Amino acid sequence: QVQLQQSGPGLVKPSQTLSLTCAISGDSVSSSSSNWNWIRQSPSRGLEWLGRTYYRSKWYNDYAVSVKSRITVNPDTSKNQFSLQLNSVTPEDTAVYYCARLVGTVDSYYFDHWGQGTLVTVSS
Amino acid sequence: SELTQDPAVSVALGQTVRITCQGDSLRSYNANWYQQMPGQAPVVVIYGKNNRPSGIPDRFSGSGSGNTASLTITGVLGEDEADYYCGSRNTSGNRPWVFGGGTKLTVL
Fold it and tell me: For a FRET experiment, which of A27, B7, B100, B107 has its CA 20 to 30 Å from that of B35?
């Protein structure tokens, strides 16, 4: 049974860095068949995919163009978790942030397990 | 959103409802459907052409043609009242995965 447990602060000041962690149980961050993602949700933007990390003989990352200059998603194999860092945040980055596992089948890739969500508010 | 959904749909208890999703990426990729209850994370109910994860009732089904995908709920129950989101791979380069804006399903 895969479970994703998120942790991190719910309040970040403008211009500072948003940092969240997603602890994985029931799978490995180094799995060759899983991808580890961050997705956020806000009333103005809806569900928005932000980035992912995955291991296929080496580590890879993909990021949404809209946040590419500010985002880092890193694996931590020693703790079996992965993290999100989003720099230079503004109130526009206020959202519920989710970590999620992406898996592939013969006819689709889909997010089959999600963390519980963390409401992050950007405010001074 | 690069996938378009009707913001709200209502259905009488026990009837059948179809929720649709439109977008160019659906011509190349299958849609997945997620159910989200208030205050909770999304849960996948349909993935790929028409696959249900373990534990999802068979009253949920999916279909698609051209640039349109549909989620059908047959014999709607009160517990199906939720927000439903479609998602798929993206054919444009700005992000590899996209979601629709969501459809709020109200059961009357």
Answer: A27
Q: Is the per-residue pLDDT at A58 higher than 80?
A: yes
**B48/A107 CB distance under 8 A:** yes
Cα dihedral: B64, B68, B69, B72 (round 10) = -90
Residues 6+ apart with CB under 8 A from B38: none
Segment A105-118, tens digit of pLDDT: 988 999 999 999 99
Residues near A11 by beta carbon (within 8 Å), at least 6 away in sequence: A120, A121, A123
- Which residues does chain A have within 8 Å of residue B40's beta carbon, measured at their own beta carbons? 117
Tell me the count of A-B CB pairs closer than 8 A: 67
**Within 10 A of B89 (CB to CB), how many other CB atoms are there?**
18
Of A100, A94, A89, A88, which Cα lies nearest the Cα of A43?
A94
For residue B57, what are the CA distances in angstroms to A56, A85, B15, B49? 34, 37, 15, 16
